[in-house]
């Protein structure tokens, strides 16, 4: 009888401490939180480019971030 009780208590302690150690192993590290805070979304930077054609001023939208034209063609300014 005492042997069965000892085995049951030992098994219950093993189950209890086994679950605590697995929970402690899943805690996030502080370095991961710092890395996430460094990442931030940013908007696209754009500017208008101007030029004169036959004395008429034209403008076209340029993406500084991606280095491409956003407007399909030059339009009068």
Q: How would you explain this protein's 3D organization?
A:
The chain has 77 residues and is α+β, with helices and mostly antiparallel strands. The chain has two helices and four strands; from the N terminus they run H-H-E-E-E-E. Strands 1, 2, 3 and 4 form a four-stranded antiparallel β-sheet that branches.
What are the key terms here?
77 residues, alpha+beta, 4-stranded antiparallel beta sheet, 2 helices
Sequence stretches where pLDDT stays below 50 over 5 or more residues = none
Rg estimate, integer Å: 33 Å
Mean pLDDT: 81
Provide the succession of SSEs. Answer: HHEEEE
Distance between the termini: 97 Å
Major beta-sheet overview: 4 strands, antiparallel
Beta-strand percentage range: 25-35%
Helix content: 40-55%
According to DSSP, the number of beta strands is 4
Number of contiguous helices: 2
Tell me, briefly, the overall form.
Answer: rod-shaped
Based on secondary structure, the structural category is alpha+beta
Summarize the structure.
The protein is α+β, with helices and mostly antiparallel strands and 77 residues long. It has helices at 2-25, 30-38; strands at residues 46-53, 56-63, 68-69, 75-76. Strands 1, 2, 3 and 4 form a 4-stranded antiparallel sheet that branches.
Topology at a glance:
Layout: H1 2-25, H2 30-38, E1 46-53, E2 56-63, E3 68-69, E4 75-76
Antiparallel strand pairs: 1-2, 2-3, 2-4
